[in-house]
Automatic annotation (TrEMBL):
Belongs to the TCAF family. It comes from Chelydra serpentina. This is TRPM8 channel associated factor 2. Pfam families: Peptidase_M60 (PF13402). One of its GO terms (molecular function) is transmembrane transporter binding.
Length: 286
């Protein structure tokens, strides 16, 4: 096969591409798009955005740390079955960004992908949010309530574990005053599941994480991967999660989930009553 009229594009693979060749030659290749690649992620961005980068290794090493954290929380192998892809483009099919293969974003978001100083100072909430979507599993998802909520567990995890940015700085909606107001508003409306979504739904998980750390989540995400006969309706799935999380932390969390408006069945509450009470249940103080 003969290819005519093609031009070379800048490409750098962590651990393989020569830094000297990148500096003197590769980054100046004339194609309008470039790719930066690691074992677990490939970034496709306008070539002009990477030509000023003299050494892509620190940036891509940071991305490898990010991807390691994504896999760690998901309880999946450190080496992805295929590298995730994020592509920046002039026009995408939906929203500001969207998940899938590849993850897509607008050109305004390129700085969150390749500007290391910007990433370390301001975070990368959007890209990690989309990577979080790609980790969600039907067994522990309760759509439409948690679709835009549990993916943000990965955003919180990566910002705190890798970037050293606490949750209240990683996103304005996680500032304490905003969190308290959301809970108050939700309870003031009667704690109805129709209002339990996005940031309000995330709050349920954050309260559990702040009380019991990340380990129960990682253990449950791992366990769900080997479970069979997981129910498909939301009420049954929510009862299953409530029971399994309770047993992970060895506390009766039924009153906590009931306070959040979850449809906890009497039989589940009865089973969990044998566990110690959760005396520090934050929903008792609201």
């Amino acid at each position: 096969i003969a290819v005519k009229g093609a031009v070379q594009a800048p490409f750098f693979r962590l651990g393989k591409t020569s830094k000297s060749q990148w500096l003197t030659c590769i980054r100046h290749y004339p194609a309008p798009w470039a790719e930066l690649a690691t074992q677990n992620i490939i970034l496709t961005v306008p070539a002009d955005s990477i030509r000023p980068i003299e050494d892509p290794e620190p940036l891509l090493t940071l991305w490898e740390r990010i991807m390691a954290a994504v896999a760690e929380l998901a309880a999946t192998p450190a080496t992805f079955l295929r590298p995730e892809r994020i592509v920046a483009d002039v026009q995408i099919s939906a929203g500001w960004m969207h998940a899938g293969y590849p993850i897509m974003c607008h050109l305004d978001s390129v700085k969150e992908l390749v500007n290391m100083e910007y990433m370390q100072a301001n975070g990368v909430w959007g890209p990690i949010h989309e990577l979080g979507h790609n980790q969600q599993q039907a067994g522990w998802e309760f759509p439409p309530h948690t679709t835009e909520a549990t993916c943000n567990l990965w955003s919180v995890y990566v910002h705190e574990k890798v970037l050293g940015i606490p949750r209240d700085r990683a996103h304005g909606d996680l500032q304490l005053k905003n969190r308290k107001k959301r809970i108050s508003d939700y309870l003031g409306k009667g704690a109805q599941l129709k209002d339990w979504n996005v940031w309000t739904a995330l709050e349920t998980y954050l309260q559990l994480q702040e009380a019991f750390d990340w380990k129960p989540f990682i253990q449950l995400f791992s366990e769900y991967q080997t479970m069979s006969n997981i129910p498909t309706d939301n009420p049954s799935k929510m009862n299953l999660w409530a029971e399994k999380f309770s047993r992970q932390v060895k506390k009766n969390l039924a009153p906590f989930f009931v306070a959040w408006g979850w449809p906890i069945k009497g039989e589940v509450s009865k089973k969990l009553a044998s566990l110690p009470n959760w005396d520090k249940n934050p929903m008792k103080k609201v």
